[in-house]
Write a structure and sequence with these properties.
The complex is a heterodimer of chains A (299) and B (1061). Chain A is an alpha+beta fold and 299 residues long. Chain A folds into three domains: 47 residues, Uridine Diphospho-n-acetylenolpyruvylglucosamine Reductase, domain 2 (2-Layer Sandwich); 112 residues, Uridine Diphospho-n-acetylenolpyruvylglucosamine Reductase, domain 3; 112 residues, Enolase-like, domain 1, CATH 3.30.390.50. Chain A is built from twelve helices and 14 strands. In chain A, the strands form four sheets. Chain A has a five-stranded antiparallel β-sheet. Chain A has a four-stranded antiparallel β-sheet with strand order 11-12-13-14, with helices on both faces. In chain A, helix 10 packs antiparallel against helix 11 and helix 11 packs antiparallel against helix 12. In chain A, 57% of the residues are buried. Chain B folds into five domains: 74 residues, Roll (Ubiquitin-like (UB roll)); 180 residues, Aldehyde Oxidoreductase, domain 3 (Alpha-Beta Complex); 186 residues, 2-Layer Sandwich (Aldehyde Oxidoreductase, domain 4); 187 residues, Aldehyde Oxidoreductase, domain 4 (2-Layer Sandwich); 146 residues, Aldehyde oxidase/xanthine dehydrogenase, molybdopterin binding domain (Aldehyde Oxidoreductase, domain 4). The longest helix of chain B has 31 residues. With 1061 residues, chain B is of the alpha+beta class. Helices cover 26% and strands 19% of the residues of chain B. Chain B is built from 25 helices and 32 strands. In chain B, a hairpin with a 5-residue loop joins strand 23 and strand 24. In chain B, helix 12 packs across helix 13, helix 21 crosses helix 22 and helix 23 packs across helix 24. Chain B has a seven-stranded mixed β-sheet, with helices on both faces. The chains are: A alpha+beta (299), B alpha+beta (1061). Bound molecules: flavin-adenine dinucleotide. Flavin-adenine dinucleotide (FAD) sits at the interface of chains A and B.
Chain lengths: 299, 1061
């Protein structure tokens, strides 16, 4: 198996890469870790005539503290994010999902930004970045803009990126105090893309009521789905099992739009989404409470 | 473009194409330790280290290696002894992999070793969980990961200086391998909450590596042996650990062309017009073959003995295509790229024909057989959608339709698809291509119907099992060329080299003597390569071009255009007396052979021959229809029809036991066949040939059941299913808990008893030859086909035992039709038994000649000695008075000094018996009743497969086999869309188990001494596949009270079944 022929550029600066993209537009594809793109090339499902390899652009590989939050360069390898202590401390949700993505070989090459730019609606990082209110910095030769994560994913494998743009950086804000997080997914086997999955970040106010709940569903439609109505139900109330159950059911019934394939029917996915939503909300609120009472010392 | 990199420590410049993967570029430059297994990064066989970290080279561009350090297995270690030049010896990982039995076929070994090296370089003290995570990116279809994980832990210990791994024989048993049984722990606590799905450990808890192996001698007849019974290092382990170029594709050849196949996009179509002129005109294309170009010879692809027990219905190329993936044309070109472009340039006009995609609709409605009528869809007008049907499959459906029920409604017959309407079809047996019937079997023992009327209870149940793929990590690969004598050489990844030669001669129009088949190391087969599938077309291309041609399947082709396990539908009907005695047992089967009838009769015949013989019932009926459909051909898959049968039989028996309130194990043992009995089906079935009744001489089924029950904690029972052991029907089936109950998890235990056979009696033949060399070493030439199983090693151990010298004194070679004697090949669990007996015979002849020479030598030096008085031991021939000559002295004497002759022997073996191995298989599961997820926590297999020649390779067979069977139970399934296209064509959609999701496994050998074999062996290779799926389904039944009558137990299926219960 061999990809169809293409022109190959391996620029060493972002500016150079953007110049190639500006010149070739739709004909060109940036190549990050290649763990999604190269299989597509191998099967000739993608046939770009120009490949702009980002792997030699050292300015895109970094993890930096930023005002309580984090800045992650788009080319930072998944493996590095997985093992980074700063990520474990400031974005424990990211830290928790990293080992669930693929296998060591894949995480060695795969990048943080590539997984987002690829916009697979069952990719863990997609949901996690939305739950964490991440913001993405996009650059073209002409301009630079910041796009919030929940506006970045516009459809199946489709993002707000223009062909001449690169995703260069992800900003993860600090989690508010009294916040808890959780991620659960159901895969047919380990490491598979999930049949259903939910990432959530919840925040309690000082009276123990839910102030904010960002619950994001994977494999629940052509893009990640944010459960706004469920969040409204929770807001202003102390989380109880009954309320959690009701919010989970609401989200699963009314807010997601899962499809059917050989792994699972839409009906079953909806059921799982409800079960998982209840489980992640329960876990996240527990963590938020633990943090409030200072029980958790690890972050 | 030029790429400058550091390759295995050397600054190197490679000339690569920009669009070339690193895998392709490395192999093109002779780095053959890097293996191709897929194109998506899923299998990991292509793992290399990039700057010290593992990456999948199939999803990395060669151009991206520029400026980086690439390390392959070639950089690690050297053969320990290479003449006068000191070597770096083996890396501790390589030694550990060889010694611990972690290497079976060896195809993924370089990848595993590299992945492990990256781990150990960074973390010298890995936990088992970390080792499993590091290996999780490399799929292994052979080992079940138990021994590779152990090997990495051992190598880590050696690297830390805590232990020394000795490669030399005699070996100590690998640590941890022969641990005595531990104290039985109390019942594990039932967790009160759902295990976090995710988190660092993932949703599946990691299990302790425990390959405990116990040998319990059930009979005291076993003779004392020196080399037989020891965990010898495999004779091919070192080369495989070193990643030497040992596989079919690991060759460089001048003028080599790449062969590619154009596969049909349609399930059923006639080729109206095919125009290859544009493809032929493409520069670099050397041949394009269509059905118009090659001789039309009806043949079978099933690698079996002469005469082929099945229809001849396959043509190298045909003007009709019968499944999505069938051959349309073949191309040979200078590069893969040109070959692929040429395929795109072939113009084909198809006349699309209606297709048969459901075996239950294969027969014309007005001419259904009685068997087909039983399985016909209730509404013949609405073709059943397989996925809908599978999803809806819930409880056992009871149906009253007897065998004689009227066949389907009158139906418009015109246009009913007939898959084999070619006039040159050669029928076999009861086939009837006019109703898409590839084979039919009707066996009646006693009077089933009368016995059912007498029975106190009659149980009817329907069961179904899916089509699954063998998925060897090395896909089909074949190299053909004309040698200097203009003989056609076929170097191929096959289990049946001698059948390839015999069967292809007429297809290619060459006499057998003009063909040479070489079987190098094989990257796994599991029955998939008991098929002559690629060799014919590759050879046609060599004949057409005069050039060497290499053909390699991609993973996608391997899924859609090779063979797989027959899917089957079953209806069981069993008559039982009030005391639990089974008086009548009936199995009706509808089996899907796919587009061709290869293995149609024999696989499904085996289903009944084995499954219907486990319980010694006087009245047995086994009726089967094996039908053509427009799906890929089914074929041989380890177990050969038997896992299918035991799923139906053993879940059915579970239901009977529970509904009648018997302990499932006691009920089974009461009815199971006993030693000394006649094998029930042996007198009526022998692969479509004349049958002879066989007596079961050895059967330790009861001991196996007791040992396994103890190991799984059968007696302790489980908390979740109440008191079923007391036979309390009320409490035996708790209803599934409410969704809000504190814990949705339920645990359960299940069992299945199984049996297999050992070779096809009176047919399977193996042969071996042995010759003595100047230094007292021996060449052992066997036709037997080691495909990773370790047969070369156990055959060597048997020769070593007879000749009294260690296995390392043998140069063992298998198999090459020019050099090695005939062997029918690796299938039917026959090699250790049949080929082993042939080796023993050959060795006995050599021993006899050596004793004669030794007697002459010793008599000349002192008191006269008779040959019969001489014993061979420790590389010497001993006189009773203690004088001896060495083997080397005997060799020099007979080759150079006096009465010169070559000491050599050859032996053949064929057996009138096929002694069955027996086993009890147990599973412990946890079911999440809310989501339907089933987690298998533990598998135990206690088996009687006669004397164990090599406990390391034998337990490796069992662990690997159970792992394949676990996939069958839980997650593997070939699903097709409405157009007949296979949906899972990669390892993402088709999931086989990885290192970090394995249950704990325990293997217990209960040895017997089988009197029909010189060393008392029976088969071990296939039986592990038989009982896992029913044991798991029975454990889910135990946990939830719901028996799910079809596999795989996908979460959605389980969820639906629980919801409907
Ligand atoms: C065997 C296997 C298993 C996997 N399992 C999982 C899994 O369980 N979960 C999961 O989430 N993923 C999984 N993946 C995908 C993996 O995580 C990929 O690495 C990831 O999705 C894409 O990242 P990449 O860096 O490899 O991007 P690439 O493959 O290089 O690129 C992906 C796409 O994004 C574009 N792109 C990349 N970077 C940029 C950028 N900076 N700016 C603009 N466009 C860009 C590319 O042009 C391309 O279209 C798996 C992959 C494999 C091969």
């Amino acid at each position: 198996m061999k990809p169809a022929p293409f022109k190959y550029y391996a620029p060493v600066t972002v500016d150079e890469a953007l110049a190639h993209l500006a010149e070739h537009g739709y004909e060109a594809k940036p190549l990050a870790g290649g763990q999604s793109l190269i299989p597509l090339l191998n099967f000739r499902l993608a046939r770009p005539s120009v490949i702009v390899d980002l792997n030699n652009i050292s300015e895109l590989f970094y993890i930096r503290p930023d005002d309580g939050g984090l800045l992650i360069g788009a080319m930072t390898r998944q493996r590095q994010v997985e093992h980074d202590p700063l990520v474990a401390e400031r974005a424990p949700l990211v830290h928790e999902v990293m080992p669930q993505i693929a296998y060591p070989q894949i995480r060695t090459r795969g990048t943080f930004g590539g997984s987002l730019a690829h916009a697979d609606p069952s990719a863990e990082l997609v949901a996690v970045n939305i739950a964490l209110n991440g913001r993405f910095r996009l650059r073209s030769q002409a301009a630079e803009r910041w796009v919030p994560a929940d506006e970045f994913f516009v459809g199946l494998f489709t993002t707000a990126l223009e062909p001449e743009e690169l995703l260069v950086e992800v900003a993860l804000p600090p989690m508010p105090p009294r916040s808890g997080w959780a991620f659960q997914q159901i895969t047919r086997r380990h490491h598979d893309f999930c049949i259903a999955g939910v990432a959530v970040v919840v925040t309690l106010n000082d009276r123990g009521q839910c102030e904010q709940a960002r619950m994001v569903f994977l494999s629940a439609g052509d893009r990640p789905v944010i459960a706004h109505q469920a969040a409204e139900m929770l807001k202003g109330h102390a989380p109880s099992p009954e309320l959690i159950q009701a919010a989970a059911e609401k989200a699963a019934r009314d807010e997601i739009d899962p499809g059917s394939d050989i792994h699972a029917s839409a009906e079953y996915r909806r059921h799982l989404a409800g079960v998982l939503a209840r489980r992640v909300l329960t876990q996240a609120f527990e963590r938020a409470k633990a943090r409030e009472t200072g029980k958790s010392g690890n972050w | 473009m030029k790429v400058h990199l550091t390759l295995n420590g050397q600054a190197t410049t490679l000339e690569v194409a920009v669009n070339e993967t690193l895998l392709a570029a490395l192999r093109r430059h002779g780095i053959f330790g890097v293996k191709h297994g897929c194109e998506t990064g899923e299998c990991g066989a292509c793992t290399v280290l990039l700057d010290g970290r593992p990456v999948a080279s199939c999803v990395t561009l060669a151009a991206q290696a520029a400026g980086h350090a690439v390390t392959t297995i070639e950089a690690l270690g050297e053969y320990p002894e290479k003449g006068w030049k000191p070597t770096s010896e083996l890396h501790p990982l390589q030694k550990a992999f060889a010694v611990s039995g972690a290497i079976q076929c060896g195809y993924c070994t370089p990848a595993m070793i590299l992945a492990a090296k990256a781990l150990l370089d960074e973390n010298p003290h890995p936990t088992e969980a970390e080792v499993r995570d590091a290996l999780s990116g490399t799929l292994c279809r052979c080992t079940g990961y138990v021994k590779p994980v152990q090997a990495v832990l051992d190598a880590a210990a050696e690297l830390r200086g805590e232990k020394v791994i000795e490669l030399k024989s005699p070996l100590a048993a690998p640590p941890g391998l022969f641990r005595p049984p531990q104290e039985e722990a109390g019942p594990p606590p039932v967790p009160s909450s759902f295990p976090p799905a995710g988190g660092a450990a993932g949703p599946y808890p990691l299990t302790a590596t425990e390959a405990r192996l116990e040998v319990r001698v059930a009979q005291e007849t076993r003779p004392k042996t020196t080399y037989v019974g020891r965990p010898e290092v495999k004779v091919d382990a070192v080369k495989l650990a070193l990643g030497r170029p040992a596989f079919a594709a690991d060759v460089e050849m001048r003028g080599l062309l790449v062969g590619k196949i154009l596969h049909s996009p349609h399930a059923h179509a006639r080729i109206k017009r095919i125009d290859a002129s544009k493809a032929r005109a493409l520069p670099g294309v050397h041949a394009v073959l269509t059905w118009e170009d090659v001789p039309r010879v009806a043949h079978s692809t099933a690698g079996q003995s002469d005469p082929i027990p099945g229809p001849l219905d396959f043509f190298s190329l045909d003007n009709k295509v019968r499944f999505v993936g069938d051959r349309v044309a073949a191309v040979a070109a200078e590069t893969e790229e040109i070959a692929r472009r040429a395929l795109e340039l072939i113009e084909v006009d198809y006349e699309i024909l209606p297709a048969i995609l459901d075996p239950r609709e294969a027969q014309p409605p007005d001419r259904r057989t009685e068997v087909a009528a039983v399985f016909a869809p209730e509404d013949a007008n609405s073709p059943a959608d397989e996925s809908q049907r599978l999803a809806a499959d819930g409880h056992v459906r009871r149906r009253s339709a007897g065998l004689g029920s009227p066949a389907g409604a009158n139906h418009e017959l015109q246009g009913f698809p007939i898959i084999h309407d070619e006039p040159d079809y050669v029928p076999f047996g009861d086939c009837d291509p006019q109703r898409n019937l590839a084979a039919a079997i009707r066996i009646d023992l006693g009077d089933v119907d009368a016995a059912m009327l007498q029975a106190d209870h009659v149980f009817v149940g329907e069961y179904s099992v899916p089509r699954v793929q063998q998925a060897p990590i090395e896909p089909y690969v074949c190299l053909t060329y004309w040698d200097e004598d203009d003989r056609l050489v076929i170097r191929t990844s096959t289990q049946v080299p001698f059948h390839v030669r015999r069967m292809l001669a007429p297809v290619l129009g060459l006499p057998v003597k003009r063909i040479r088949v070489i079987k190098p190391r094989i990257g796994g087969g599991f029955g998939n390569k008991q098929e002559v599938m690629l060799e014919d077309i590759c050879a046609h291309l060599t004949i057409a071009t005069g050039r060497p041609v290499l053909m390699e399947y991609s993973r996608q082709e391997q899924f859609m255009a090779s063979t797989s396990r027959h899917s089957m539908h079953f209806r069981m009907r069993t008559g039982v007396m009030a005391d639990g005695t089974i008086v009548a047992n009936e199995m009706l089967v509808l089996s899907d052979t796919g587009a061709y009838g290869n293995h149609a009769l024999t696989v499904t015949g085996n289903t009944g021959h084995k499954a219907m013989s486990l319980y010694d019932v006087p009245n047995i009926r086994f009726h089967a229809d094996i039908v053509y459909t427009n799906r890929p051909p089914s074929g041989a898959f380890r177990g050969y029809g038997v896992p299918q049968g035991f799923f139906a039989l053993e879940t059915h028996m579970e239901r009977i036991a529970r509904e009648l309130g018997f302990d499932p194990l006691e009920f089974r043992l009461k009815n199971a066949v006993k030693p000394g009995a006649e094998h029930p089906m042996s007198k009526v079935w022998s692969e479509g040939r004349e049958a002879h009744g066989e007596i079961i001489h050895t059967c330790a089924l009861e001991e196996c059941a007791r040992a396994g029950a103890e190991a799984i904690g059968w007696q302790r029972g489980q908390g979740d299913k109440g008191t079923r052991r007391q036979g309390d029907k009320e409490k035996a089936f708790p209803s599934p808990p409410l969704p809000l109950s504190p814990s949705p998890l339920r645990k359960g235990l299940g069992v299945a008893l199984v049996m297999q056979g050992t070779a096809i009696p009176n047919l399977d033949m193996g042969a071996a030859s042995i010759k003595l060399n100047d230094d007292g070493s021996f060449n052992l030439l066997v036709g037997a086909t080691d495909l990773g199983t370790g047969s070369d090693t156990v055959l060597t151990q048997m020769a070593a035992e007879v000749l009294g010298c260690p296995p390392e004194d043998f140069i063992t070679y298998s198999s090459d039709t020019d050099f090695t004697p005939f062997d029918k090949g690796a299938y039917a669990s026959s090699t250790t038994y049949i080929s082993g007996a042939a080796v023993v015979r050959a060795a006995q002849q050599v021993a006899e000649q050596m004793r004669e020479v030794a007697a002459r030598m010793l008599s000349a030096q002192g008191p006269a000695v008779e040959p019969y008085e001489i014993t061979l031991e420790e590389r010497r021939a001993w006189a009773p008075d203690g004088r001896s000559v060495t083997f080397a002295e005997i060799a020099l004497h007979s080759l150079h000094h006096a009465q010169q002759h070559q000491i050599m022997g050859s032996g053949s073996w064929v057996s009138p018996d096929s002694p069955p191995p027996f086993a009890a298989q147990f599973a412990e599961v946890t079911v999440d009743t809310e989501t339907g997820q089933v987690r298998v926590d533990k598998l135990v297999m206690a088996l009687d497969c006669g004397v164990i020649i090599n406990p390391a390779t034998a337990s490796g067979q069992v662990e690997g086999g159970m792992t394949q069977a676990l996939g069958y139970a839980l997650c593997e399934e070939m699903v097709f869309d409405q157009a007949g296209r296979l949906i899972p064509t990669d390892f993402q959609k088709y999931h086989i188990f990885r290192a970090d999701e394995m249950p704990e496994m325990r293997v217990i050998f209960v040895e017997t001494f089988e009197p029909t074999h010189p060393f008392g062996v029976k088969a071990v290779a296939e039986i592990p596949l038989d009982g896992v799926a029913p044991a798991v389904a029975n454990a889910v039944y135990d946990a939830t009270g719901v028996l799910i009558p079809s596999i795989p137990l996908l979460p959605e299926k389980v969820w639906r079944a629980l919801r409907e219960a």
